[in-house]
Each structure stands twice: as structure tokens, then as C-alpha cells.
């Protein structure tokens, strides 16, 4: 079974958008427009609402663009910044394409005690299966995140912190509504 999204195409889009002199809101809107043009059967040009998300201590806002059992695509970020644990996904590769801001990270298991190169606008990084990072997302940073693999295995990490630590049931409810909306849209096509 082939994948629907191409990381190289996503990279080219983000490089283009990151080079525009736009504020964060317009960068995000333009990114969604380009994605809807490139993937008209997959991306709705009028995406759902923003949902609060806390996973691994990383608190931010997420907008779901696509969700299936094998792939997901979201925009994630924070106007004020955040830091925490990337998660460790044994069955999913996580690609981050930075639209604006900066993300600093470091590998949790390597012998290297230096940070990885900073992710800057237009840049791309991939958290490969089985690896984990500590990260800092600077204020005003927004990125396109693409997950490829057994996506359902990411949901416990994505939801447990929000539920068990924050007791933020409304965000989980809203996330569930957005997942259902995207899956329903796919089934109607």
C-alpha cells in the first residue's frame, strides 16, 4: 500500500511558504491552501478548529488536516513557547517542517551532549522510529507535522498527558470530534 503524502513535496511547500513575508496566521492559511491545491482529495481548504494538546509536557495548539490509520498531517505550535519530550514511537516516523520560529532538540540516548542543529523556518527534521528527543519550541513557532506508519500507536502518548496529568477532558473531546470529522470526510469520498 502506498502513502498519500510525499515528504519531499511537503518540504518544498514549507520552504516556499517560510520564505514569504507573512505573519503566523497568514503563513498557516497559505500552507493549508497549498496543501489543499496539491492534495485536493485529502485536505479540506477550510480545516477544523484549533485544539489544545499536551503530550510529553509539550503544550500547544494543533489543527488536524488529515488522519488515517497509516498517516496524519497537522499544524502544531505555540504562541508563547513550550518544551518537553518528543515521545518514542516504535511504528511511526514523525516529520517536522518548520513554518516560522525555531525548535531546539537533543537526542536522549546518544553519547553526544550537544544539541542537534536548530530547526529554522523552511527546515525539516525526522524523528525516526524508536528514537526520542528533548525539545524546546520557541515562542511563535509553528510547524507542519507529518506522521507515517501505524498512526493509531501514537494516540496513547497524544492523549494520556492531556487526560491523566492535565485532566483536560474538553481537549480530548474536541480532538475526537476532529478525528471523526476527518475520517468521515475520507469515507464520503
Automatic annotation (TrEMBL):
InterPro entries the record matches: ERG2_sigma1_rcpt-like (IPR006716)
Keyword terms of this UniProt record: Endoplasmic reticulum, Membrane, Transmembrane, Transmembrane helix
Domain of life per record: Bacteria
Main location (coarse class): endoplasmic reticulum
Location(s) in or outside the cell: Endoplasmic reticulum membrane
Pfam families, sorted: ERG2_Sigma1R
Protein name: Isomerase
Lineage: Bacteria, Bacillati, Actinomycetota, Actinomycetes, Mycobacteriales
Amino acid at each position: 500500500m502506498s502513502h498519500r503524502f510525499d515528504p519531499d513535496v511537503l518540504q518544498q511547500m514549507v520552504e516556499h511558504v517560510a520564505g514569504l513575508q507573512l505573519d503566523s496566521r497568514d503563513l498557516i492559511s497559505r500552507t493549508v491552501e497549498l496543501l489543499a491545491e496539491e492534495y485536493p482529495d485529502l485536505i479540506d481548504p477550510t480545516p477544523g478548529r484549533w485544539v489544545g494538546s499536551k503530550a510529553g509536557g509539550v503544550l500547544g495548539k494543533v489543527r488536524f488536516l488529515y488522519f488515517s490509520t497509516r498517516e496524519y498531517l497537522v499544524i502544531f505550535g505555540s504562541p508563547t513557547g513550550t518544551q518537553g519530550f518528543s515521545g518514542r514511537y516504535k511504528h511511526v516516523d514523525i516529520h517536522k517542517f518548520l513554518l516560522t520560529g525555531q525548535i531546539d532538540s537533543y537526542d536522549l540516548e546518544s553519547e553526544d551532549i550537544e544539541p542537534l542543529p536548530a530547526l529554522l523556518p523552511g527546515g525539516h527534521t525526522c524523528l525516526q522510529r524508536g528514537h526520542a528527543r528533548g525539545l524546546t519550541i520557541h515562542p511563535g513557532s509553528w510547524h507542519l507535522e507529518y506522521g507515517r506508519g501505524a498512526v493509531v500507536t501514537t494516540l496513547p502518548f497524544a492523549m494520556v498527558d492531556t487526560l491523566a496529568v492535565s485532566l483536560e477532558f474538553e481537549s480530548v473531546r474536541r480532538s475526537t470530534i476532529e478525528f471523526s470529522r476527518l475520517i468521515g470526510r475520507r469515507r464520503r469520498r
